[in-house]
Amino acid sequence: MTENERLVHRVSAVGIGVNILLTAFKLLAGILAHSGAMLSDAVHSASDVLSTVIVLIGVKLSGKAADETHPYGHDRFECVASIILAGILLATGIGIGASGIRSIFHIGSATPEAPGVLALTAAAVSIVVKEWMYWYTRAAAKRLDSVALMASAWDHRSDAFSSVGAFAGILGARLGLPILDPIASVIICLFILKVSVDIFCQAIDRVVDRACPKETEDAICRLVLEQEGVRSLDVLRTRQFGAGVYVDIEIAADGSLSLREGHEIAERVHHAVEQGFPNIRHCMVHVNPAEEASPAPDPAPQSDTAETATVQPPDGPPAPDA
């Protein structure tokens, strides 16, 4: 097992353990203290257990090596896990919102019992614990550049937000405004729906090969132009492929160089980019002859194929066309 896999397993184990304990505590508090908002929050925490398991499976599958049927690896399994997680959060949010709306209409025909202080305590504990889990998981996601772990981190943050809503609703109900408890459930629903949409959009960006941020592309451009023999950077294309990035580059070099010399320049660029950006899984470099300021008179016509050379270093498969 690699160090990255051990980190994912450790973060996931902590997340599952914390969520199981919080779910039990919130469920008990919601039942004993007669709080619909706390019961809704308990359901959210219960969904986090399943979400963490899905993230763990997705990261595990995405780490599988390339094979004959998946020559570019299995990175997108992580995106699939994020999309499933977004779906679970969406369903959870809709269920909590529907329950809260029903309770709001029910209050007009009945006088509900104010939630007990245990529910208020459970909400406060949940806010602190889930906010800590957000930062703990986020740090691991940043280190691994994992969209699935980052989705899990935001799942923890959404639970913290929902607990804030539950705390406000329960406190308001105890102060004589019982309608605030189910209203808190509806607010929790909105938080969860927002997070689910954000996670889904981020995962889709990785599935459809969205380009890297402009600052990343600018950094790659500067690195390429620093390499010996590179006259200019003609084309730079990047795409986020699961947790990794693939890069296609066209550079211009002296047209009088031999094919071997052009190949050496391309290799230099290839290795510099992959070593300078660890999340880049593969960089393909294409060499064009640089335009001369004063071309020789009456040059013999040549085809594009004869004028250029595509260099593919032998240390990995070519990236698919963008």
Give, in order, the helices and strands: HHHHHHHEEHEHE
Distance between the termini: 32 Å
**What profile does the largest beta sheet have?**
4 strands, mixed
Mean pLDDT: 79
What is the C-alpha radius of gyration, as a whole number of Å?
27 Å
Helix content percent band: 55-70%
Count of distinct strands: 4
Strand content: 5-15%
The backbone outline, from C-alpha atoms, is elongated
Explain what the structure shows:
- It is elongated, with a radius of gyration of 27 Å.
- A 4-stranded mixed beta sheet has the order 1-2-3-4.
- The chain has 322 residues and is an alpha+beta fold.
- The chain is built from 9 helices and 4 strands.
- It has helices at 3-32, 36-62, 76-107, 117-144, 147-174, 180-207, 214-225, 259-276, 304-307, and strands at 232-241, 244-253, 280-289, 309-311.
- Helix 2 runs antiparallel to helix 3, helix 2 (36-62) packs antiparallel against helix 5 and helix 3 (76-107) runs parallel beside helix 5.
Helix/strand layout:
Elements: H1 3-32, H2 36-62, H3 76-107, H4 117-144, H5 147-174, H6 180-207, H7 214-225, E1 232-241, E2 244-253, H8 259-276, E3 280-289, H9 304-307, E4 309-311
Parallel strand pairs: 2-3
Antiparallel strand pairs: 1-2, 3-4
Helix pairs in contact: 1-2, 1-4, 2-3, 2-5, 2-6, 3-5, 3-6, 4-5, 5-6
